[in-house]
């Protein structure tokens, strides 16, 4: 099991925690509006977990767009599949990632969103290289700190040689492939 993959018990606890957080403070809809996502785009929710962002991203890209909910955890894929089935979303597909190898084709994504998971990555250069591979040359990576300091996030991104930081907000960084 990759070190980045949490246990089933941890996943269940995380999912429950997110449900409570989203009920008390539903900010995801507002947050995704800052990601410069337009109708018709292809977006990869990389490390999608239980799909908190996946379904909101699907609304932004519309019927002509596509969202891939991608994760290394089978329970995440199952959770997202249940959500998209219950919501009748036709523009979302789940993708099981094997380590740092995502089965999506090169240059598929207008946006790759890696949210609340980068702090768990053991090999950031390889990880960021894989995200670059699936991103279009004019696409963007939307990444946040998760549970690490911004200085560490910036250092990992800059040292990877794969991305240039275009914009930083308190909430996330927008990066362009180099």
Q: How would you sum up this structure, described in words?
A:
α5 crosses α6. α3 links the parallel β1 (42-46) and β2. By secondary structure, this protein is α/β, with parallel strands linked by helices. The protein is built from six helices and seven strands. It has helices at residues 8-24, 28-32, 54-61, 74-87, 124-134, 150-160; strands spanning 42-46, 66-71, 92-96, 109-114, 135-143, 163-168, 173-177. The protein has a seven-stranded mixed sheet, sandwiched between helices. It is 37% helix and 24% strand.
Low-confidence stretches: none
| Secondary-structure element order, N to C | HHEHEHEEHEHEE
| Span between termini | 31 Å
CA-based gyration radius: 15 Å
Q: Give a quick account of the main beta sheet: strands, pairing sense, barrel closure.
A: 7 strands, mixed
Order of strands, widest sheet: 3-2-1-4-5-7-6
Helicity level: 25-40%
Shape: globular
Overall structural class, as computed from helix and strand content, comes to alpha/beta
